[in-house]
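Notes from hallway chat w/ T.B., transcribed later so I don't forget. T.B. wanted the structure written out for a chain they're using in a teaching module, and asked if we could keep both sequence and structure tokens in one place. Agreed to drop them here.
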Amino acid sequence: MTASPGSSSTPNAQTLGNLKAGLAAFKQGNYSGAIALLSPMLDSPIDHPLLTKAQMGLVLAYERVGESRQAIALCQRLQQSPDPELQAWATQTMATLLTRYPEIAVPSDHAVQTEPDSSATSTVAATAPENITGFIPLEAAPAGAAATPENVTGFIPLEAANPAIASSPASTATGFVTTPSSEQPFPSASASSSRAPQFTKPPQSRYSSPSGESPTTPGADFVEESPSLYQPIWRLAGRAQPWKPLGRVNMLRLVGVEVFTIIALFWVIEQLLYHTVSLYGNSLNRVIPMLGFRWVLWGPPHWTVPLTIVLLSTAFLASRWILDGFLIWLYGLKPLSLDAVGGYSPETARSLQRFCRQHKLPLPILGVLPTQVPLAFSYGPVPWLTRTVVSQGLLEQLSDEEIATVFANEVGHLAYWNVPVMSMLAVLVQLPYTLYRLTADWGEHKSAAISRASATLIMALSYGLFRLLRWVGLWVSRQRVYYSDRMAVDLTGNPNAYTRALLKMAIGTAQEVQQQGKTNYLLEGMELLTPLGLRQAISIGSLHPHTPLEPLLEQERTNPYQTWLTINQSHPVLGDRLYLLTLYARHWRLEEELVWPDTSSKSNRVKGALTGQQWRVLLLQGAPFFGIAFGAAIALALSLLGRIGLQLGQESLLWLYTDWASGSRTVLRGLMLIGFSLGTVIRLNPFFPEMQRRLTTPKSYPELLQQAGKLPLVNQPVSLSGRLLGRSGISNYLNQDLWLQTQTGLIKLHCTSRLGPFGSLFPQSSRPCDLVNRETTVTGWFRQGATPWIDGETLRTTGGQVSRSYHPVWSTLAATIAALFGILTIFNF
């Protein structure tokens, strides 16, 4: 602070009110009002954390209203502050201002201190490790400024914000502040279009409460720091007009993935039917004779193959009407006319028919869901029976051109013929998911123990079946997104609007979860069809008011383990998709919506080309699963050894070959279980290090992400406080919907009992879902995979209620059980 060191004056109520009002005016874009309220405080002798924020806010406000000399003068003053973080912030900001306004002279005694070096002047690298504050100066320049040759991204800086913006309805539904665009894309483009975030972040304050008060949350040992003056702004980068089409793409890969998915789906369902019926028949064969009844033995079910064909055919041909029924019954689906869409997006009303004509497709039947979650998806067996559904939230929260790109994305799915396969998958996934939802709701209204226990068991089985069938469709769901993204850009010539659309859908999804306090069933059940994955949308969307997104998106995009980490995800990492959209913008020489860090060396790497050290780390991360493969390889080698022994007359080795040739393959199954057990034990200690010895100083959620490892194996023991969100009651007994709402974003929580998911079904003194909607301190291991999460150890409310999670115990128990079953299987017990 600039107050004298010996000053300890406490501000009176009026002074504190002016500080808060000035900071609020700054955040709303009322820079002139902020200056009027905050400038009298500069010479105030008060000692309060808000004064530091006020001083930083004044620098930015002066610059944004064109008073650059005042901004630089204040930076010179702040460089004399005893606060090292404030000094560093002032030095870097002043260097940027001097670079931007070279005509302003600076006294010689400041020349050395403010001379920009390569790290200070690179705005795209402002979050590099050497930048202890993480501040990225606002890129402001006169409208129409061209990119300099040194700027390899072609970024055109954001023009200086107009003070009049404060009095205009610039704030969008997503909370971004918009500034005037340098060029209008189409005459019909909405004047209220929002901008993609240009991020400005001062250093994190050492004070953690928005009001400047000390963070004394009861029961919390480690509390996050609050966000400071960071303010995301949509840049409203333009579109190509006219543009040259991107050209055709090879569909062979997508077709191959679709064929594989259909075969895998057929095999999974047939095996489920076969083993379920066989288990039922074997149980009858044993129980009924024991009761003294005559019984004709139940033979193997040879009819499961034709039954599977019938089920898949029905799910395919009737997918449109089955999904219509689910959506009307459970979510209130209503018809939507193209004229009604035109009321929100005139461009969509004009261009949708053109999109369809270009690809010889009929106009899809439209529908609208009365939910504020911004989403869109299509389903149907053939294009002329397809329905495209959007939500009311998407129509209200996205601008004209952004809505057009979303509809173009859905046309892309139709043009590439992946909608029929996804519709069949959606039907098969919705059947158990709907049973899970209805059973859990029914059980919640029952008081009898037998009814609740039955509902819990059916809920667990149906949700497990939902997750299994969903897993079959993950590969095709990830692949099809790249094709439809390209189509959306090719049809509209507007990669920047589609970038904003994806970000706004993520923001709207996170806001919906925060407002409702739980995840919408629609989002989880229809995730395979929607433009964004559920967890990635909530994580990224909740971070947008608090931190620059580009460094985080770049971090996940350049992760060398990205291919492996997304195996269990329904969508590619968002950073990868948004960077491709940026490349499309560069292809047409457009201003870019997002300003990516300059990591050209990382960008040029070959995906999947891991170093030897990276492979070793990956093998340790996936040790349980690689152990299964290793066990299978050993079993195959032993069978070959048995065959060689048979040829050489070595009868002692004959059993190794006959076990494989007879089809029983007990050695194969046993060694795979043992391999899983050994892999789990090998990974156990690195995956769950001792908690108390490694707990460090408090970090905010964005700081944890910036310091996170590239694999979940590289974890950070943490203790964070916030409000626990998620479903309550039976629907969340498996802990599938738990989120910690911190001051700077939503973090997914993983919790488990000593017996894993099975133990979660038994009565417990305190379940995690019992703490929902309460202030909670979570201690556990923070991990970064395709999305971040915390493996919880303890969840403690401010009232003292505690729920414990036992990840290490369950892992040890699972390894022990797998080893025992493996040994018993080999010896035919």
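Follow-up for T.B.: Residues 1-8, 108-228, 601-606 have pLDDT under 50 and may be disordered. Might be a good example for the class.
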